[in-house]
Every structure is written in structure tokens, then in C-alpha cells.
């Protein structure tokens, strides 16, 4: 059965998956135009789904394949050598998608999951706000009940992919008189609804992968609530867990500008691989990258054996961010002043990747927050005292405060 | 084969852990320190005759269990966690070299006795700075001259396998522990759980073993990487458990010290390095059994990551225990010294990275 699946996956990938050179989606969006990139990703996701390789572990009645994590592992192994053009669906499938599989109503699952899988609808995750990131439970966006609907007002920020998303999973405050974790709900919001405004923000690399999003009296229909009213924090915890595991086990592309093989080839091109220091750094980069891949594989095997990774997903995420930083240092040593100024695409890609590296230590929960999670939930250390945990939200100070 | 342990491996780990707790707790290492004995002969007898640990990688046809590298690494992880002093590592390396050579007499004569714990055999290798031995003469008149240091259990070994350069290149020579002109000086080992010696040969009679010495030494070096990585993983986990346990119960400024991020984050990083190193160790063990071609790189990766991470974790273990962690009575220094020794034995981090770079074709 699984040998069969492996053979099928291998053959399909060989026939259908493009092998791409180094580069990232944002840089490509810049050069080819965003619409072209999205069209390519939608078309590829549709093909992937039609061939039976999307939603491998999701139930069949919602468009999934109804298979086990064994097939999921096989798929990850077989597809590891490719850069599949499905990036715009990564957030939707791994975060809101997996959360809906776990917590959604039957109607929600029927309506939304099949179209995520078939590449028809793109989703984003609307958690962070100007005043609430690490401490996302301090969010101020509000949803006020009106009959069996809600009215949404507020501002989200750093929302990846909002500029081309059809739906978002949003956290909003539904009861400000309760302590901050107890008055939040999670909703599905239609990004094309009246009152939704998306404005792209530029990041350090000069690209615009994320946005600020404004909600001005946006109506959320009955049926938009994910999980229970005022239990949105529980739903958020579920989604954040999926997020860490997805990011942590995503693996890095072999063609990444900061991958061992890329830097080794660049070093060889500069005649630097005879230098003992450079050789040692490259060898250590190989060792560290390999360990990050292997740990992701170990987590997947444990999942398959019925042991869920839980908070150890944070270990994988932290390790991935640290590796990016280490690889940047190796690149600087290997390339020396050739990295300071350049006129080749190869060096530009390395430079962009180094500039982008800190983002992965912030997105999806900062490395400091991951260390808190590992300390508290893996090692059982005492929690941060959390001075504000019991105070009603409407009596708290949140966000950036300056002396008057 | 998978990275996660099989049921048999879990059972093996459990039985070795129980053995260590019953027969070789850290208090017995302190008794060895006091008595000056290199290891407890009764414990060694049980490890070999009863648990069969010296024969895990020796084929059944030579009296071993033929259980493979993965089983061995599982057992070594538990022994490492308990800092069990024994001549196992030296015996493993010697057995590996003999297995890779083509000398039937040596195989028949040594391997069953190593597996049974009847004979302590060691491979007289050290890092590139560890000395040199040359061979001269021929046949029964072959003699060795030179020095190797530090050699694992060099002072206690009944038989030593000594690599030496002769007229026909490098070969591995068999030297009896009582041979003429062999001087063995037990050195002061920084790690109380290892016995290390300087071997000096002055016209010492030896027998050249048939076979490809370079290949045998390379295989032994790979196995040493796996073994030191496995022991380090176990010991590092012991440090992590000990230190996070203490951070849960030691109170300062009105809260458990684990609530302070300076402590919590250091432990989180320790957990991260452990998990990464452990995954690399499992990969190396798996490669050893199933993909021998990948073994040199995989074992090197595991060693490079775990040796450094464990040494760091052991220092942090001292630091995060405060004053009590710096006392002789506390176990932290036993791990600290073991971590330092594991990091440098048979070549320190730089040499290991050079070797990995070679294996990767950089
Ligand atoms: C590339 C990128 C993409 C993103 N995409 C999305 C998205 O799609 N959807 C979305 O909702 N959000 C997204 N984010 C937002 C991201 O989740 C937040 O930026 C992140 O959680 C940090 O929040 P903050 O920016 O408010 O920083 P703050 O929380 O203000 O943190 C500032 C600093 O304080 C530290 N800090 C805060 N609290 C603690 C603590 N308890 N202990 C120790 N240190 C602490 C942080 O680690 C950080 O170093 C994205 C961010 C980036 C960079």
C-alpha cells in the first residue's frame, strides 16, 4: 500500500513538478508580477489535488485523501528534492485548514476545505495587531454581536498574503470585561467583504509579503465562528501549534541560497575551499542543517507512531531560525567582501536570504517566545508570572506606551 | 529502519538503564576515584557475560550478538548517562578493526573472547598529535618502536592493536600486554570514568595482522564517532534532566529559578541542541546498519554536534546549580570532565570538522 503510494508519488513528481533554481516567491512576484505567480500556484495546486496528493491526511468527505501520516511522510520525503509552486497555500492549509479540520463544524468543513485543497481559495492568518504580537491575547480588534451575526472593527498587521487572500482566520475580542484570554473568539472573515481594506507593507528585503488590514464595520455571518464564542484562545492555541509544527518541519529547500551545497559551490568558485577555516565552517553548516532536517523527520515518525510533537514543534521552529542565522554567518565568512557589493544574481540571492533570515525568528512567534514554550511545556519550568492574567481586559495597558 | 527506536531497542535501553541504576550508580564512580581502580571488574563481567554489551557489533559466528550499530548506540547512550567506567570503548574499537581486517587467526582468537568479556583488547590510536610507531624486522622478528598517547585502557589491556608504519606501509600489529619492551603508564585522566595510558614500545615483539589497515582504522574511527556521540547524548540528557529538575525546585527572589528567562532560555537551548544531536545520532546508527556508505559522514555529524553540545550543557549544568554545582560532592563536575574528555578524545572539534569536510568532498 505505502510502497504503491511512494511509487505513485515519485512518478507523478518526476513528470509534473518543476525543478526551480534558487529564488523566493516574493522576489519572483517582483519580477514576474504577482498575478502570474498566483495563477501558477493555483494551477499547480489544482493538479496536485486532482492527482491525489493534497490534503493527504484530511478526510475524504472534505476533499482530502483520507490517508495516514505514513503517506504524509512518504510524500514529504519524495517531494523534498523539489520546490513545488504551492507557496501561497502554505499558510491556509497548515494553519486555518488544520484548525478547521480539528474544530470546524461540518458545514464549515464542507464549504471551505475542498476549495483550499483544490487551489481555488487562498487563506491568511489574522492574529497580530500593532499592539499585540507575542502577547497576541492583548488584541483589541472587536467583534460585537448583532442578532446571530457579528460586526467586526479593528486593525491587523504583518498579515502574510492578505493582498491575495480570499478568506482569513481572525481573532477578535468578543467580551472586554473578561480577563484577556477569556474574551476572545475566532472567526472566518471574507477578505472581499465590504469594509475590509488591505495595504501592503514592505519588509527589510524591499519586498511586500505582508500587509496591514483594516476592518470597518465588517459583518460576519452566523456560521463564521470557529469553535465556541469566547473560547477563541483555545482555537488560537490549536492554530499556533499547527503553525510551529508546519514551519518547523517544512524543511529547507536544497536550492536555498543559504543551503550548504549553494555556499560550498560559491566558495569553490572563489577558490576558497582550500582554506581550513572555510572548510570547517561549511562542514559545520552541513552538520547543523542535516540535524534540523533529521529532527523534523523524527517528529514526523513520532507522529506516525501516535506520539504527537506538541510543544516540541517549538524546538523545530527555533532550530530552523537559528540555522538561518548561522548560515548567514557562514556565508559572510565564505564570501567575504564579495558579499558587500555585487552584480550577479547568485550573490544577490545570498544577500537577500541573509537580510530575510531574521524574519523567520520573528514570524510565527519569536525565538524568545519559542524558548519560553520549550522551557515551560517541554521542560516543565515555572511559567512567566503573567501579571495581567486575571485582570479584566478593559482595565489593562497593552501595546506600545509612552510617557505623556 | 526508522529514526525512532524499535520495541526491542526500547527494551534494551530499559534493561541497560536498570543495570546502571542497580550496579553502577554515580556513587560507584566515586568509589573508583577513591580506590584508583580503572573500573569495577564485577560490573564489567556483568556488562559482558550477562548483558552481552561487548559483543553487540560482533557477528554471532564469532560469539557476539550481531545486533548492530543501532542497538550498540542505544546501550551506549544509557551507559553514557550513568558515566559507567569500563573498557568497553577500547574493546569496541579493537573488535571493529579486527572485523575489517582479513586476519582469521586474530578474528578467531580475539573476537569471541572480547564478546565474552574474557579479554580486554584496545586499539592504540590517538589524535594526530598522539605519537607515532614504526615497525621493523619481519616474520617472528617483527618489532615496534614508538609512542601512542592517550590510549583507551592501555594500561589494563591484555592485548593491544597498534597501528605502525613499516617498510610496506601502514599495518596493524598485535602486541601482547606483557610483551618485552612495552611500557604502559597510566595517565591522570581528566574524566574519572576513563582510564587512559601512554604506550611506549622499544623493540617490542609484534605480529602484523593481514588486511587493509587504512580501511580498518577508518571504520574504527567512524565507530568511535558513533560511540562518543551516543555516550555524549546520554550524558547530555542526564545534565538536562538534572538541571531542569533543579530549576523547578530551587527558589530565588520568590520564584523557582526556572521562571527567570536567563535560566529558562539556556535550558531551552540545551533541549534544542540535545534534540538535534539525538536525531543525528539516530541517523548515524541507522546508516551504520543499513547504508554503510553514508555512515562516515553521518557518524561524524553526530559526533561534531553532540560532543560540543554536551560539553556546553555540562558547563551550564555547573552554572545553573550555583555554588552547590561547583562542589566535589555534586555530580555536575563528573559530567563536566566527561564532556571535556569526550569532546577531545581521538581528535577535538577542529580535527573532527576537517574529517567531515574531507568526507563531504569540500
Ligand atoms: C515575515 C513575517 C510574517 C508574519 N506573518 C504573520 C501573519 O501572517 N499573521 C499574523 O497574525 N502575524 C504575522 N506576523 C507577526 C508575528 O507573529 C509577530 O511579529 C510576532 O509574534 C512578534 O510580535 P510583535 O511584532 O508584536 O513583537 P513584540 O511582541 O512586541 O516583541 C518585541 C520583542 O520582545 C520580545 N518579547 C515579547 N514578549 C516576550 C516575552 N514574554 N519573553 C521574552 N521576550 C519577549 C520578542 O521576542 C521581541 O524580541 C509575521 C511577522 C513576520 C516578521
Which features does this protein show?
heterodimer, A: about 400 residues, alpha+beta, 3 domains, four-stranded mixed sheet, 12 helices, about 15% strand, B: about 350 residues, Butyryl-Coa Dehydrogenase, subunit A, domain 1, Butyryl-CoA Dehydrogenase, subunit A, domain 2, Butyryl-CoA Dehydrogenase, subunit A, domain 3, 11 helices, globular
- Rg of chain A, nearest Å: 22 Å
Major sheet description of chain A: 4 strands, mixed
* CATH homologous superfamily designation of the largest domain in chain B: Butyryl-CoA Dehydrogenase, subunit A, domain 3
Number of strands of chain A: 8
For the record, the CATH architecture of the largest domain in chain B stands as Up-down Bundle
Q: Please identify the structural class of chain A as seen in this structure.
A: alpha+beta
Number of helices of chain A: 12
Mind describing the biggest β-sheet of chain B? 4 strands, mixed
Helix percent of chain A reads 40-55%
Q: Count of helical segments of chain B?
A: 11
Instruction: Provide the domain count of chain B.
Output: 3
Spatial strand sequence of the major β-sheet of chain A: 1-4-5-8
Low-pLDDT sequence parts of chain A = none
Task: Name the strands of the widest sheet of chain B in spatial order.
Answer: 1-4-5-8
Q: What global shape of chain A is seen? A: globular
Distance between the termini of chain B: 29 Å
The averaged pLDDT of chain A comes out at 92
Highest-level CATH class of the largest domain in chain B: Mainly Alpha
* Largest protein interface, residues of each chain: A-B, 41 and 39 residues
Amino acid at each position: 500500500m505505502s510502497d504503491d503510494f511512494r511509487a505513485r508519488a515519485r512518478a507523478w513528481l518526476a513528470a509534473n513538478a518543476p525543478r526551480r533554481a534558487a529564488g523566493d516567491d516574493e522576489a519572483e512576484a517582483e519580477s514576474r508580477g504577482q498575478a502570474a505567480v498566483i495563477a501558477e500556484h493555483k494551477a499547480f495546486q489544482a493538479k496536485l489535488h486532482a492527482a491525489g496528493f493534497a490534503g493527504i491526511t484530511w478526510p475524504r468527505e472534505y476533499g482530502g485523501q483520507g490517508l495516514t501520516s505514513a503517506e504524509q511522510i512518504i510524500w514529504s520525503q519524495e517531494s523534498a528534492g523539489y520546490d513545488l509552486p504551492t507557496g501561497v497555500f502554505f499558510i491556509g492549509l497548515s494553519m486555518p485548514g488544520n484548525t478547521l479540520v480539528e474544530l470546524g463544524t461540518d458545514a464549515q468543513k464542507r464549504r471551505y476545505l475542498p476549495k483550499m485543497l483544490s487551489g481555488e481559495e487562498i487563506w491568511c492568518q489574522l492574529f497580530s495587531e500593532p499592539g499585540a504580537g507575542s502577547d497576541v491575547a492583548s488584541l483589541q480588534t472587536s467583534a460585537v454581536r448583532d442578532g446571530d451575526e457579528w460586526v467586526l472593527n479593528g486593525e491587523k498587521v504583518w498579515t502574510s498574503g492578505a493582498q491575495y487572500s480570499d478568506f482569513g482566520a481572525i481573532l477578535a475580542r468578543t467580551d472586554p470585561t473578561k480577563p484577556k484570554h477569556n474574551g476572545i473568539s475566532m472567526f472566518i472573515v471574507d477578505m472581499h467583504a465590504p469594509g475590509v481594506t488591505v495595504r501592503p507593507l514592505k519588509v527589510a528585503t524591499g519586498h511586500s509579503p505582508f500587509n496591514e488590514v483594516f476592518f470597518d464595520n465588517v459583518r460576519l455571518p452566523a456560521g463564521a465562528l470557529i469553535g465556541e464564542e469566547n473560547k477563541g484562545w483555545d482555537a488560537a492555541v490549536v492554530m499556533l501549534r499547527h503553525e510551529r509544527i508546519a514551519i518547523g518541519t517544512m524543511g529547507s529547500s536544497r536550492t536555498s541560497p543559504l543551503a550548504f551545497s549553494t555556499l560550498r559551490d560559491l566558495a569553490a568558485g572563489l577558490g576558497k575551499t582550500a582554506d581550513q577555516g572555510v572548510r570547517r565552517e561549511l562542514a559545520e553548516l552541513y552538520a547543523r542543517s542535516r540535524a534540523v532536517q533529521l529532527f523534523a523527520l523524527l517528529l514526523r515518525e513520532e507522529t506516525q507512531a501516535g506520539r504527537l510533537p506538541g510543544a516540541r514543534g517549538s524546538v523545530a521552529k527555533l532550530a530552523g531560525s537559528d540555522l538561518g542565522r548561522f548560515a548567514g554567518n557562514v556565508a559572510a565568512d565564505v564570501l567575504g567582501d564579495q558579499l558587500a557589493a555585487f552584480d550577479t544574481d547568485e550573490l544577490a540571492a545570498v544577500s537577500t536570504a541573509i537580510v530575510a533570515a531574521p524574519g523567520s525568528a520573528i514570524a510565527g512567534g519569536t525565538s524568545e517566545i519559542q524558548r519560553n514554550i520549550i522551557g515551560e511545556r517541554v521542560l516543565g519550568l515555572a511559567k512567566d508570572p503573567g501579571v495581567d492574567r486575571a485582570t479584566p481586559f478593559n482595565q489593562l495597558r497593552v501595546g506600545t506606551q509612552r510617557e505623556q | 529502519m526508522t529514526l525512532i527506536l524499535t520495541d526491542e531497542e526500547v527494551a534494551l535501553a530499559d534493561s541497560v538503564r536498570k543495570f546502571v541504576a542497580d550496579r553502577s550508580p554515580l556513587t560507584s564512580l566515586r568509589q573508583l576515584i577513591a580506590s584508583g581502580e580503572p573500573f569495577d571488574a564485577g560490573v564489567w563481567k556483568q556488562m559482558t557475560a550477562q548483558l552481552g554489551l561487548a559483543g553487540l557489533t560482533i557477528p554471532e559466528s564469532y560469539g557476539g550478538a550481531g545486533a548492530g550499530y543501532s542497538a550498540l548506540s542505544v546501550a551506549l547512550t544509557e551507559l553514557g548517562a550513568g558515566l559507567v567506567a569500563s573498557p568497553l570503548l577500547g574493546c569496541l574499537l579493537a573488535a571493529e578493526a579486527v572485523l575489517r581486517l582479513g586476519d582469521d587467526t586474530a578474528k578467531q582468537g580475539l573476537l569471541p573472547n572480547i564478546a565474552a568479556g574474557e579479554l580486554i583488547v584496545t586499539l592504540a590510536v590517538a589524535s594526530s598529535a598522539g605519537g607515532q610507531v614504526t615497525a621493523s624486522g619481519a616474520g617472528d622478528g617483527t618489532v615496534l618502536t614508538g609512542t601512542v598517547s592517550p590510549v583507551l585502557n592501555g594500561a589494563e589491556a591484555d592485548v593491544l592493536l597498534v597501528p605502525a608504519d613499516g617498510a610496506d606501509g601502514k599495518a596493524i600489529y598485535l602486541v601482547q600486554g606483557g610483551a618485552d619492551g612495552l611500557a604502559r603508564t597510566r595517565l591522570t585522566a581528566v574524566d574519572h570514568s576513563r582510564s587512559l595510558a601512554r604506550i611506549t614500545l622499544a623493540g617490542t615483539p609484534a605480529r602484523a595482522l593481514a588486511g587493509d589497515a587504512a580501511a580498518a582504522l577508518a571504520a574504527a574511527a567512524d565507530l568511535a564517532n558513533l560511540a562518543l556521540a551516543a555516550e555524549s547524548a546520554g550524558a547530555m540528557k542526564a545534565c538536562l534532566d538534572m538541571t531542569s529538575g533543579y530549576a523547578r525546585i530551587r527558589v530565588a527572589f520568590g520564584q523557582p529559578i526556572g521562571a527567570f528567562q536567563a535560566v529558562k532560555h539556556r535550558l531551552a537551548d540545551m533541549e534544542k541542541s540535545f534534540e538535534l544531536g539525538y536525531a543525528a545520532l539516530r541517523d548515524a546508527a541507522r546508516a551504520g546498519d543499513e547504508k554503510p556508505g553514508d555512515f562516515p559522514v553521518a557518524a561524524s555529524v553526530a559526533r561534531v554536534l553532540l560532543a560540543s553540545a554536551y560539553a556546553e550543557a555540562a558547563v551550564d549544568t555547573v552554572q545553573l546549580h550555583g555554588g552547590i554545582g561547583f562542589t566535589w560532592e555534586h555530580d555536575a563536575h563528573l559530567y563536566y570532565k566527561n564532556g571535556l574528555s569526550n569532546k577531545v578524545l581521538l581528535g577535538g572539534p577542529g580535527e573532527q570538522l576537517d574529517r567531515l569536510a574531507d568526507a563531504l568532498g569540500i
